[in-house]
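Supplementary Text 2. Reproducibility record for the structural model of the 316-residue chain.

All settings were left at their defaults, and a single model was retained for analysis rather than an ensemble. We include the record here because the model underlies the residue-level annotations in Supplementary Table 4.
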Amino acid sequence: MKAVGHPETPFEHRVEASLARIPEWRGRPLRYALAAAPVASPSHRATASDCVLVAVEGEADVFLKIRHADMADDVTAVAVRAVERAGALGLGPAVRIVGEGILGLDLLPDPWRYARVGDLQDADTLASVLAALRRLQGEAPFGHRFCPFARIAALAREAEAVGAPLPDGTGELIAASGLIGEAMQASGIGLAPCRNDGVASNIMLAGADIHLVDFDLAGDADPWFEVGALINEVCRFEDGRRAAIEAYAGTCDPRLFARCRLYGAVDDVMWGLWGIVRAVTAPRGGIEFFKYGQWRLFHARTTTGAWDFEAWLRGL
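Retained model, structure tokens:
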């Protein structure tokens, strides 16, 4: 670990400038190290923030997230409050530091590790994650709406504004997302406080224990969106999807199955556009934003191109 003192790299300059803005640590000996290298594909982690392990003399170590300025629009107004709520419920690490663009959490030491898709394909583990989401959704609303369809529209406008190189067929995927949004609205949408994140690496595991991390997109949304996003990330076959829906809801009828399948495509389009756009707008080279975006858009096509896509729309 490096002591605060003479930064030599852009990473060190960013970290030390941020540490200097934390009043609780001023004048105290600090050491820091990179906690997670940025990877967009396939695990999608540490792309929006510098993730730093900070050792503070006389205190437990802290996992510090330092938001990149170009990612400021990728976090909702209630993200910090959602992290604090998860910590209070014992479903995430406790919050230690909050500042402008800075969030410090209790470090989760070994044996805690981030989940991979294969971990969540274990039925018991996935059921535990779904139970954690259901518990969060049962809390009071955040008072801030998150709408994946609105985010897709905003990213599409941004893509046009920056001249992002959208793959062929992306317009059709955006149009399909609009159809899904109309069908969802017609079927009725109930709102609950949600994390709105289905990425496996944003779940931490330690044996049978789980913690949820990364609440950047937190807000009041249809809880089936985040359930569908998670199932879309984890499950490859119909029987697994149906089992996951039953674990969450106690039953799996055709309407719920259709809702999850369609929301999975919406999540793919949303993150696909994000990856393509951030490949243009993010100044940090070497992060596979474009590759990640291409993959998510390709995955969306496997859903919107399925022979029963229209049946799912009609079955909501």
